[in-house]
Amino acid sequence: MAPELRGEHTVLVANRDEFLREIVVTTLESVGYRVASVPDVAQLGGHIPDEGPVNCTAIIEVDRDESATDLIARVRAKVPRMAVVLLTPQGLEPGFDGTERVELLSKPFQMNDLVKMVDRASGLERTGVLS
Amino acid sequence: MSEKIRILLVDDHTLFRESLGQLLAAEADMVVVRSVGDADAAIRSALELNPDVILMDIDMPGLICFDAADQILRMKEQSRIIFLSAFFHDHYIEQALRVKARGYLTKSEPSHKVIEAIRQVAAGRVYFSPQVASRIIADETGVHLQDKKTRAAMLTEREVEVLRYLARGMAKKEIAATMHVSVKTVEGHAQKLMDKLDIHDRVELARYAIREGLAEA
User: Fold this and answer.
1) Are A117 and A103 in contact (CB under 8 A)?
2) In chain B, which among 123-162 make CB contacts under 8 A with chain A?
């Protein structure tokens, strides 16, 4: 692992379930990421820097009655190419328009899977420095 | 943090409780608001004192600590509970996650880890060791511990029985005599349970059985 490289990257976590949110935060911090968390996507904006380049990945949970496309658009209103990991309910494949830099993670998932997904979304996996 | 972290200590062992209390009292940002010896007293104290963090032993007589935690959290949703145990049993951790405890520590942790856990949990975070955190699985019903419990659940009653005897260091011949079966049957059960658990070393098997509480009964 190369936690120092992850340390250059910020992960923004938006999840209404406080307990799960804090477990995600603790897991990502333990592998080296800087993490900010909020209960709602609408509150993510305050954590996104105004000027790029932005080393940010957002993790957002998609409820059954929500549109993944809308959520991605809201996250990317400030930073158009921000990487996004969508946490989706089991069996739900949210329809979105093939936007780049979006990873899907369906429940149930293990925290290790989430770390791998964030590595991939953040581009760290492609550098080959993470094992 | 300008205000001190107010801690409720719950452990039936007076010596341990007092030692831990002294350790925490030495921290400038912590104060133990009360120490109690059982889960019923923990509920009353939690409601009365509204502590920032409740450090609760798992292995206590009387009301089961997980039920106590459940009651506290139903009445005071913001309560932050860290469980302490002498053991690292999967079913304890599973229960701790079920009641949304903010942390799980074993009593063999160095004191600085306990202090770190209290600070982290008081700040609204959770504290689980990396070994536990990496095995946490999130599904639509909440968070759980994955894998080893499931693997133990795959064992038949006979296989669990053989596992228990093996964990006690009994020879296969001795197990066969105790169970009134042939040595070959015992060997068959042993092979199957090792395959299911993917543990092929007798010492590791014993450790697994002890960790899972299967060696006790």
Assistant:
1) yes
2) 124-128, 130, 133-140, 142-143, 146
